[in-house]
């Protein structure tokens, strides 16, 4: 989990005002789609939250809730199921086309394998040399799942054919987010050393380590596979765009405070970064150094993680309502109001 999330969220209700400087030249704003919050659904339930994933096959959202995974029908926002016994769950990786998904369970150092269609649990996998599995990603080129372990600073590699652990890859620090390019490379940002590392998934080894100048605390990570550009959301209100071939930074942009996720819509050529301050930064550009923030959309305080429905160009975010501590309370932190957990659906403005 991003170290920024360990800070108190008290006082983060103000959305970063970037819109006035985002659209230079003005032509960029005219050409880029405008987005808005289209729907809000109260999901309720217990537990905090971390990452969420969207499965295009079942059109379901899988949302980590601390000890279980909440399953939501993305078409109407209804809660349709639950994956139990996932202690300390952080992320969910969908093995597209295989009807298998994997959760990273940080408390008992395991992965849960389940069916996205039936929601039945298939098995649990121990991560013998991996402590604190957090972000998890599926690599279709090697047909492997990689669980990134924050405490042991390595990655556990699982073959999805037989759910066997086939490798453990040492990393240069604490991994945060990762993305596969579909060609056999997996990129992972290293939060505590401000770096990007490249894994050859078929060979099971690291091939490169790149520093990220100007990026403090990389968290969200997305990829434009066609243009070979990586979008790294950083804790110092910055997004850096990196050439995925050379590791060189090609653009640096201002975004909101406290990012924890990034996605890329290939059809619209837009990158999204979601922030804990209640803003969604939207970046336009393709292949050149003319990247620009075209919109800073107010969402909801605490909406720091998201998932993308690439077919319908929708972004899903989750948050809750907060209340200040009671007078005389020893705690100075705001708390989540009971049963206030909610789903926000962002789409193109019509």
Describe this structure in words.
The protein is mostly beta strands. It has 2 domains: 16-45 and 212-324 and 337-350, YVTN repeat-like/Quinoprotein amine dehydrogenase (Methylamine Dehydrogenase, Chain H, 7 Propeller), CATH 2.130.10.10; 49-175, 7 Propeller (Methylamine Dehydrogenase, Chain H), CATH 2.130.10. It has helices at residues 19-22, 26-31; strands at 35-42, 52-55, 60-64, 69-73, 78-83, 89-95, 100-105, 110-114, 121-126, 133-139, 144-149, 154-159, 164-170, 175-180, 185-190, 195-200, 205-211, 218-224, 229-234, 238-243, 249-254, 259-265, 270-275, 279-284, 292-298, 306-309, 314-319, 322-323, 335-336, 342-348. The strands form 8 sheets. Strands 1-30-27-26 form a 4-stranded antiparallel beta sheet, with no helix packed on it. Strands 2-3-4-5 form a 4-stranded antiparallel beta sheet, with no helix packed on it. A 4-stranded antiparallel beta sheet has the order 6-7-8-9, with no helix packed on it. The two termini are 36 Å apart.
CATH class categorisation of the largest domain: Mainly Beta
Rounded to an integer, what's the Rg over CA atoms?
Answer: 19 Å
Straight-line N-to-C gap = 36 Å
**Major β-sheet profile:** 4 strands, antiparallel
CATH architecture of the largest domain: 7 Propeller
Assign the structural class, choosing from mainly alpha, mainly beta, alpha/beta, alpha+beta, or little secondary structure. Answer: mainly beta
Write out the CATH superfamily name of the largest domain: YVTN repeat-like/Quinoprotein amine dehydrogenase
The geometry reads as globular
The number of distinct helices, counting runs of at least 4 residues, comes to 2
Enumerate the strands of the largest sheet in spatial order, edge to edge or round the barrel: 1-30-27-26
- Give the averaged pLDDT, no decimals: 91
Oligomer: single chain
Please indicate the percent range of residues in DSSP E strands (runs of 2 or more). over 45%
Number of strands: 30
């Amino acid at each position: 989990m991003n170290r920024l999330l360990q800070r108190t969220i008290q006082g983060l209700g103000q959305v970063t005002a970037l819109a006035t400087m985002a659209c230079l030249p003005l032509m960029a704003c005219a050409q880029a789609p405008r987005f808005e919050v289209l729907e809000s659904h109260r999901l309720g339930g217990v537990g905090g939250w971390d990452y969420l994933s969207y499965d295009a096959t079942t059109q379901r959202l899988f949302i980590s809730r601390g000890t279980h995974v909440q399953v939501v029908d993305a078409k109407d926002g209804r809660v349709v199921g639950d994956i139990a016994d996932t202690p300390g769950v952080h992320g969910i990786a969908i093995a597209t086309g295989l009807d298998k998904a994997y959760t990273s369970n940080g408390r008992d150092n395991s992965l849960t394998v389940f069916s996205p269609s039936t929601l039945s649990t298939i098995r649990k996998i121990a991560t013998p040399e991996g402590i604190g599995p957090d972000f998890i990603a599926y690599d279709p080129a090697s047909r492997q799942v990689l669980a990134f372990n924050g405490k042991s600073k390595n990655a556990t590699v699982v073959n999805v054919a037989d759910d066997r652990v086939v490798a453990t890859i040492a990393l240069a620090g604490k991994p945060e987010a990762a993305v596969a390019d579909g060609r056999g490379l997996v990129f992972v940002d290293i939060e505590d050393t401000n770096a990007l590392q490249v894994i050859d998934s078929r060979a099971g080894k690291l091939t490169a380590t790149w520093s990220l100048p100007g990026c403090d605390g990389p968290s969200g990570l997305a990829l434009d596979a066609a243009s070979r550009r990586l979008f790294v959301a950083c804790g110092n209100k910055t997004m850096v765009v990196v050439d995925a071939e050379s590791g060189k930074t090609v653009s640096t942009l201002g975004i909101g405070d406290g990012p924890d996720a990034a996605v890329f819509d290939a059809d619209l050529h837009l990158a999204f970064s979601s922030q804990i301050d209640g803003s969604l930064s939207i970046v336009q550009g393709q292949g050149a150094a003319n990247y620009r923030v075209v919109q800073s959309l107010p969402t909801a305080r605490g909406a720091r993680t998201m998932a993308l429905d690439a077919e319908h160009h929708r972004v899903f975010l989750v948050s809750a309502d907060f209340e200040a501590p009671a007078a005389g309370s020893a705690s100075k932190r705001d708390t989540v109001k009971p049963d206030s957990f909610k789903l926000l659906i962002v789409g193109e403005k019509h």
